[in-house]
Known about the structure:
- There is one protein chain.
- By secondary structure, the protein is an alpha/beta fold.
- The protein has a domain at 4-120 and 213-231: 3-Layer(aba) Sandwich (Peroxisomal Thiolase, Chain A, domain 1), CATH 3.40.47.10.
- It is built from 14 helices and eleven strands.
- The protein has a nine-stranded mixed β-sheet, sandwiched between helices. Strands 5-6 form a two-stranded antiparallel sheet.
- A hairpin with a 4-residue loop joins β10 and β11.
- The mean pLDDT is 97.
- The chain binds coenzyme A.
- Coenzyme A (COA) binds at residues 86, 121, 125, 128, 145-146, 186, 201, 207-208, 210-213, 290, 338.
Amino acid sequence: MKSNDEKVAIIGVGHSKFGKRLDVSINELGWEAIKPALQDAGITQKDVGFYSVGNFGYWSEEILPAVTIGEYAGLTCGSLKTEAACASGSASLKIAMDSILSGNSDIAVAMGIEKMYNSPNGTIIELIGRAGNYFWEFENFGMTFPGYYALYATKYLDAFNSKEEDLCEAAVKAHHYGSMNPYAQFRKETSVEECMKSKYVSRPLKLMDSSPITDGAAAVILARGDVAKKLSDTPVYIESQGTATGTAYMGRRDDYTGLEASRRAAEIAFRGAGLDGVGNNFDLFEVHDCFTIAEVMAYEDLGLAKKGEGIRLLKEHQTYKDGKFPVNLDGGLKSKGHPIGATGISQAVEITKQLREEADNGRQVQVNRGRALQHNVGGTGHYAYVTIYSRGD
Ligand code: COA
């Protein structure tokens, strides 16, 4: 195992307000996240050796946002845009981390950003839909993303004799914590009844089962462990990261009640961190709840619950703050919002704040083991990233 000095640590975080952000350009939105991250780390732009920008981007004003954001933010070092659909933020984290581990930089910025509302909703929904398999799914059947996840939901509800009301429990939890998060797009509690009354977007999934369209940005400052120790009293170490890919065409998958790529990424991450699974090892989880069904499948793919028992875990409130496995205490993608390229970094920001015991408004989890897990999925399971963080105690 690596010593803390040999790992990469997060030493600063920044987060923009998520929502409909027609008030700013993409560069200004990026700066809203980068500026507080630099301040938090106590460094300036000249200390940064590399920066990466997670961005899907086909709907927004700038095609080369890594360059324009960097120029606006005064970052003159090398940069790269990463794209792994909804896991583009985790890909950004990986590339920035690799630049440090390979010896090319001591300090790097990993950020993620999306300005989705630059295009009309119909265009956005079409572009996300094309992130399935274009020929077999989009061109022939006109699939949308709610449509893909509705297939999972239909299979899951049928296989485990569950109801739409059960899925709505995930929306209730998400909005409960989102209501406490000042950066969240929706800061309003909801109920199973309200969720059930919301319009179908793709049966059995309703508006309240879905993450929204969102503009937003998030940034983390990474440093090599020995450098991090000098700059920060509270570095949060990246212990391991597992990445896996699934088939492009869903018809070639074996299982429609979970994501094989998530399971493989988790196995790699656990092994890299010297753990044999979830066990009693974590204080907090950030999972990819782009739809309520995705949260339930994530519980089972990561090992928080056995197959078919995810809904029971949710209904018993075991994934609430005081439960056995606290999940998405920032409101998750569902309530905090899901600016595609920013989500993976936003999850890292939340984990860092929680492990530093700085989460606001009653969302702070009790930190006992000093360890947290992040799960970020791209496409319909095309990419999965599982990242394990610790306080390095
Ligand atoms: N949850 C709760 N409320 C939502 C919402 C959501 N996910 N999405 C929109 N709303 C609200 C809006 O704030 C708006 O409220 P208002 O009338 O009080 O202002 C209202 O619902 C209508 O919003 P609108 O944006 O016009 O909805 P829409 O029908 O065009 O789009 C979805 C709704 C769910 C279809 C769209 O947000 C979507 O496609 N989401 C999924 C995004 C996605 O696939 N991401 C990738 C996943 S990996």
